[in-house]
């Protein structure tokens, strides 16, 4: 991840982002251009979003792909690969959501360390967030981090042949369903 080296305000970032053909993430005054993903990254995200869509049905919850931003107090604006919000306040802004209960990142070699570390540190500041999920592209491995209390999170790791449980939205799925249709 390469940052644009000049500080910009959240307002400047949002104005630029609405006009840009390239997506950028924002973290404490720095702007990062997002690299393109692989076909397997895209397929894993699509498989997950399909399963979430079926699970949520006609509920009041909404799911989003990597085209809508998640924000916390103007400190960061990220594009998660998938997330779910059930808060009606998140219907007021078509571009930015502030109350996700589930956030999912499909790990890429270029962003893996950031997603596991600093991005999680940022996301966990969102009071509504119940679950943060990291999906590997290299092997059938899903890491679910769940909020137990304000500062305490527990981690469950799922591997090939297991059922993944997304407690925040009441979804249980075979890990093989996430990896269906991938190219070796």
UniProtKB/TrEMBL annotation:
InterPro entries from the UniProt entry: Nuclease_put_TT1808, Restrct_endonuc-II-like, Uma2
Putative restriction endonuclease domain ranges (all copies): 10-174
Pfam family, any one: Uma2
SUPFAM superfamilies membership: Restriction endonuclease-like
Family annotation (PANTHER family): GLR1098 PROTEIN, RESTRICTION ENDONUCLEASE DOMAIN-CONTAINING PROTEIN-RELATED
UniProt-recorded name of the protein: Putative restriction endonuclease domain-containing protein
């Amino acid at each position: 991840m390469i940052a644009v080296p000049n500080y910009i305000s959240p307002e400047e970032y949002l104005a630029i982002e609405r006009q840009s053909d390239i997506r950028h993430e924002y973290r404490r005054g720095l702007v990062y251009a997002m690299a393109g993903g692989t076909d397997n990254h895209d397929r894993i995200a699509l498989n997950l979003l399909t399963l979430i869509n079926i699970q949520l049905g006609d509920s009041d919850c909404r799911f989003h792909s990597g085209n809508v931003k998640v924000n916390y107090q103007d400190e960061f604006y990220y594009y998660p690969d998938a997330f779910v919000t059930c808060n009606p306040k998140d219907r007021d802004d078509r571009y930015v959501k502030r109350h996700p209960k589930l956030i999912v990142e499909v790990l890429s070699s270029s962003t893996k360390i950031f997603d596991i570390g600093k991005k999680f540190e940022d996301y966990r500041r969102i009071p509504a967030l119940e679950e943060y999920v990291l999906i590997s592209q290299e092997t059938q491995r899903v890491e679910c981090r769940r909020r137990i209390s304000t500062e305490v999170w527990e981690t469950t790791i799922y591997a090939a042949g297991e059922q993944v449980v997304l407690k925040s939205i009441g979804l249980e799925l075979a890990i093989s369903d996430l990896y269906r249709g991938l190219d070796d």
